Prior knowledge:
The protein is mainly α. It has helices at 3-12, 20-47, 50-78, 88-96, 101-125, 133-162, 173-182, 187-211, 225-258, 268-276, 281-305.
Amino acid sequence: MDHDQWNEPYAARGLPVVGVGHRLDMGARMDMEEVKDRAQDALEDAAGSTWLEHLARAGLAARGLLYVVVGILAVQVAAGHDNARADKQGAMQSVVRQPFGRVLVLLLAVGFAGYAIWRFVEAAVGPPGEDDQRKAKVKRVGYAGRGVLYTFFFASAVKLFIWSNEAASNRRAEADWTARVLDWPAGIWLVQAVGLAAIGAGLYVGWRGLSGKFRKGLKSVEMGRAERVWIRGVGTVGMVARMLVTVLIGAFLIIAARQHDPEGAVGIDGALKRLAESSYGPALLVLVACGLAAYGLYSFAEARYRRVCGH
């Protein structure tokens, strides 16, 4: 069949006459669009599924346990136990040393994986009911960032489960990566930008806590009056404590960049120990420790009452 015979049915119906190659391109584009639509439908189905809800709630509970243990370790730092590592890595190491510790760490790993999957699906689908595309993109980036963070926690928990007798080798990881970045072109500015981002994120968390915005995501109608008051209290205290720690981490990053001193970069553990060394430090650290533990309790409440995946 020649080119004119191929196009006769299209011309007879008043449709534009196109070449075979062009029709093949159109067919390929239509196939790609169909694949994208099916993928989007699958993601939306996953976002509203019961299994993803269970994974998300398990992740919130795992986060709660982690923050409670970090709070306990921070109290130990305030009491002068310098060997206590008051951060999430230290919390997992503390858990693995308990009776049935490896089982608990494995459960934490499952929870972290669930939390990461939930956040990645949210990042792919986008926030429901958000008409402002700019805000939606910012939220998607935030979801993806949390997914990456909890993927790292999942990998750390699995590593600790497998090699539970080995000491942690990344105690000064913050200084190591800061030293590497400072050697990059514009590395000083990049580290300062990360510090400013940490300060901004901390202030945002504190604002959400003090304004009570975090309650919008909770199923308040299922709570009693006492539960609403209690959850708002631990949520506010916990988020203010997180704000303080995150702002301190950001400030130390900026100082480390300006002084070109990677040893000045710290994580949660380092920020809490620096706080302990200041005037009235132990007392302040105990308050912050209680706040971090309160955030853990709030996470347990979220695992029960948070609106997750439309449920």
